[in-house]
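Morning!

This is the sequence you dropped in the shared folder:
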Amino acid sequence: MRILFSIVINALILFAITYLLSANPDKGVVDGVVLGCDWCGFNSLQAWKTYIIGGIILGIINVTIKPLLKLLSLPFYLIFFSLVGFIVNWILLKLFDYIVNVVLQIPGISYTINWTVNFIIAVAIFTFLNMFYSLIFSKK
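The structure's back. Tokens below.
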């Protein structure tokens, strides 16, 4: 049950990033988060397929790679806690982008964050929502 809940939370985090950073020419935002289909909006069925598959991939990354990155960066966590957490999440989001778009290449499924500023904002959202999720649902 915890795994299913984690997938749903990761899918909702991807949805939030897409919702907040999606390309919107009406508002002057040309570059943003681009999903695998040009015709689908951020709330379409095809988009939710992308979020769920992305949630599964992020769940696998969070279980396997995130603890290793935290362990390797432990000395830096003690000195620069927030910055190191941000950098670890940066690496995880870049790895997620690479796995979805290059390694798997599922037809109609892609998740690209264009422009460096959008990526920094996406990492900040990802970091904040992961910390919020960890605080609320951590075992005591």
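Headline: The chain is about 70% helix and 5% strand.

More detail when I'm at my desk.
O.
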